[in-house]
Amino acid sequence: MKQYVIDELRPADQQRIKDYLDAHFGPADMETLYWIPLEPSLYSEDQRRHEQCHPLYIVVQLTSASISVELLVRTKNRIRCDCIRYADQAQMKWAVDVVDAIFENLEIIN
Fold first, then answer.
1. What Å distances lie between residue 20 and 27, 37, 47, 82, 99, CA to CA?
2. Which domain does 99 fall in, by range?
3. How many domains does the chain divide into?
4. Is residue 110 assigned to a domain?
5. How would you classify residue 31: left for phi > 0, otherwise alpha for psi between -120 and 50, otherwise beta?
6. Of the four listed, 64, 85, 104, 107, which is most buried by Cβ atoms within 10 Å?
7. Long-range CB contacts (< 8 A, 24+ apart) of 22-25?
8. Is residue 88 part of a domain?
9. pTM greater than 0.85
């Protein structure tokens, strides 16, 4: 799996990140997974056509020591579909920027 990972989180920072994710993206699935809606303007042509799969998401996993972004664009509506694929360059940059912005907003230096 392609991922963007920030590790060695301090416990206090992990809690602040969890609180932020809970407030902005709802409670975690399976205690550690957050589904963050991908900006629709970044959908590929194929992904735009698959309206039944919208919205599309990136998944962020927050553990006690790290936060990781799976660089796989997915849907909650289906397990398999052609629109579920690794993020392209623009989608990947957006996903990394989202996590980096969380750290910036919370003034966490890691």
1. 10, 15, 28, 32, 11
2. 3-105
3. 1
4. no
5. left
6. 85
7. none
8. yes
9. yes
